[in-house]
Amino acid sequence: MRRRWLQTLLGVLIFALLLYKIDVREVLEAFKGVNLLYFGLAAAAYFCYDVLMAFRLHYLLSRLGARNSFKEAFFAHMGGMVASDVTPARSGYLLTPYFLKKDGSAGITEGLAAILAPQGFEFVMKVVGGFLGFLFFVSALDTNLLVPLSVAAVAFLMIGVLTLVILWTREGISSSLLSKIPALRRFDEKYNRVKDLSLEIKSDLPVIFAIYMACWLLMGLQWFFLAKALDIDLSFVACFLLHPLITLLAFVPLTPAGFGIMEGGTAAVFHMLGINVGVALTFSLLVRINCIVVDAIGLKEVF
């Protein structure tokens, strides 16, 4: 609990430093000028993203033999999303299997398999997307920003590859790897069950990939509408590629959901693209607010 408070405090301090460096009046003026129609369209795009993610969860659970309805999968997913909005590295999403079990729609192991197996693939894809975004904006990016982005990218890649190796390789390889992690040794039995279930959905990789790409398009559309809401001149392609590049910072486990870190990274990248820093910071806040407003549907599960 003390660590959680320290992480929250660090996020607040980073954000306070941003406000100190930026003219607060610019941020307030930008907020006053937000186009609510575009803000609503951004929320609609993000809601469609959540629906697709819930469908993926429902589909994979069904493949594992769990008798869950789409409604149950949807609210469990939303509960995990709202928890991820306030936890370091968005780790609160791992509560989703608990919500599924509470509703009686799936067991913890089935829920973990349906989440972890595609998550490793997503992490690798996010690094690929971030790299494409870097290539697209390489002439505008400051080399000083490459350090935190590179650290986040390497961490993502390692987590993604490690997850795929553990869940989607031969037992001998993954068990050997697991035995080298002391904290996980006591979960051998549950791990083997999760691994068996994960291997059952390995053949669904094309479906996982298709849903991931559709979700990426929707997230790019959310950012495009939020840019429009602030009258920022960014194309859809730019928003599509900026999303994985910047959201890598949201998974840095120093503050809840990268609060302060992602805002600073967004302001820095947008400033290099010729956008006013105050407006850029407002954009990053709008992204967070937009997501939380939609994810608040999951409060039904949390409480």
Describe the 3D structure:
It is a single chain. With 303 residues, the chain is an all-alpha fold. The longest helix has 30 residues. It is globular, with a radius of gyration of 20 Å. The two termini are 19 Å apart. The mean pLDDT is 78.
What key phrases describe this protein's structure?
globular; 303 residues
List the helices and strands and how they pair.
Layout: H1 2-21, H2 24-32, H3 36-63, H4 70-84, H5 96-102, H6 108-137, H7 143-168, H8 171-179, H9 188-200, H10 205-229, H11 236-247, H12 261-272, H13 277-295, H14 299-302
Order of helices and strands: HHHHHHHHHHHHHH
What share of the residues does DSSP label as strand, in percent? Answer: under 5%
Can you summarize the main beta sheet? none
Residue windows where pLDDT falls under 50 for at least 5 positions? none
Q: What's the β-strand tally?
A: 0
Helical segment tally?
A: 14
Structural class category: mainly alpha
How far is it from the N-terminal to the C-terminal residue, by CA? 19 Å
Gyration radius, rounded: 20 Å
Helical residue percent band:
over 70%
The geometry reads as globular
Overall pLDDT level: 78
